[in-house]
């Protein structure tokens, strides 16, 4: 290697290192700024909502001096900037206060109920991805055909029908009439006090411990709300898969593959779908994040003891510590998944690394 080649190689390595450092700095700045903005939004929502946290704790009939003492203990009599500083400090340490409804630390309540939401969203995303991707591929390959129209109508219904109406209708049909699924809830009362979960994910714990009767019961409870969420995920994933596949099928390498005599099945599933999978992974990740934050109505309808139902009950009981803590956790998870999907996209597609 000549001296010129060594110089060029050194410059290239320095540029790569500089690009990597800049990407890491952008990631850190984006994450910190977004999370700080999320904390600020939840703080000011808590101050704008016409609910006095002190009255929520002591009750409306408490003497004025008791209410004032509680307000002083909560720091509500301090200047707004000082309250915000205390709120940020506590939020960063995971301290969201005590829940008025359960009298437990809010973070302990969230740690108890959040696995149920993750389990529901995970099963729903699996259903949406396993059905949505093949349907999207079918619609793209059969563009303009009757099959394409059916897939597009399925997606349109998924976007248009209110989830609470579809949830109530599915309960009437599959539970009340056909008896195919279990009643609303997460587990039968027979197993509620005999089964001891370890991780909080009932399906995983039941399978790991070999309690297949519990696994079957939990599955009969989760399948209907998960299928409902999966249907809405399917509508989004199938639509995006169709769009990505149409773009890939019009590329020159597809024409070249057909000219070489490759089978249509190989071209679609091993060439076009492989290239479409890069942005599709990001779509599925964002769909998962949407299910995590958007399952409030589903959990309420099916009495699913997750974070969405916890926030709903807390809001109805003016438990603002729990509401803001749960909102902040969901927002942080959503932001984290968005950033992770962006990093994953850059990892899978080298063309975006230089941006």
UniProtKB/TrEMBL annotation:
UniProt keyword terms in alphabetical order: Cell membrane, Membrane, Transmembrane, Transmembrane helix, Transport
Domain ABC transmembrane type-1: 114-345
CDD domains: TM_PBP2
Pfam families: BPD_transp_1, BPD_transp_1_N
Tagged with keyword Transport: yes
Annotated transmembrane regions: 20-45, 120-141, 153-176, 218-237, 268-289, 322-345
Family of the protein in this entry: Belongs to the binding-protein-dependent transport system permease family.
Name of this chain's protein: ABC transporter permease
Organism in which the protein naturally occurs: Rhizobium puerariae
């Amino acid at each position: 290697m000549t001296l010129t080649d060594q110089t060029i190689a050194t410059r290239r390595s320095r540029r790569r290192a500089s690009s990597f450092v800049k990407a890491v700095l952008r990631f850190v700045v984006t994450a910190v700024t977004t999370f700080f903005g999320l904390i600020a939004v939840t703080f000011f929502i808590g101050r704008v909502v016409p609910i006095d946290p002190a009255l929520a704790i002591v009750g409306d009939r408490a003497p004025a001096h008791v209410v004032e003492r509680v307000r002083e203990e909560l720091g509500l009599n301090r200047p707004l900037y000082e309250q915000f500083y205390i709120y940020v400090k506590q939020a960063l340490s995971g301290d969201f206060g005590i829940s008025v409804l359960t009298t437990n630390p809010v973070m302990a309540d969230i740690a108890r109920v959040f696995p149920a939401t993750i389990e529901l969203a995970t099963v729903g995303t699996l259903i949406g991805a396993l059905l949505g991707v093949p349907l999207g591929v079918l619609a793209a390959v059969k563009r303009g055909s009757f099959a394409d129209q059916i897939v597009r109508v399925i997606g349109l219904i998924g976007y248009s029908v209110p989830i609470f109406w579809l949830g109530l209708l599915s309960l009437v049909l599959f539970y009340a009439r056909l008896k195919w699924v279990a009643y609303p809830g997460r587990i039968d009362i027979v197993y509620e006090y005999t089964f001891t979960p370890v991780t909080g994910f009932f399906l995983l714990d039941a399978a790991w411990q070999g309690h297949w009767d519990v696994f079957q019961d939990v599955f009969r409870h989760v399948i209907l709300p998960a299928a409902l969420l999966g249907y809405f995920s399917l509508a989004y994933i199938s639509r995006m898969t169709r769009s990505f596949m149409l773009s890939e099928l019009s590329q020159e390498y597809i024409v070249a593959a057909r000219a070489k005599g490759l089978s249509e099945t190989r071209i679609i599933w091993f060439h076009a779908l492989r290239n479409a999978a890069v942005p599709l992974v990001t779509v599925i990740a964002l769909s998962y994040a949407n299910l995590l934050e958007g399952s409030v109505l589903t959990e309420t309808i099916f009495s699913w003891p997750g974070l969405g139902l916890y926030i709903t009950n807390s809001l109805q009981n003016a438990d603002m510590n729990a509401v803001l803590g749960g909102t902040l956790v969901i927002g942080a998870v959503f932001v984290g998944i968005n950033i992770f999907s962006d990093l994953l996209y850059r990892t899978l597609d080298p063309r975006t690394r230089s941006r």
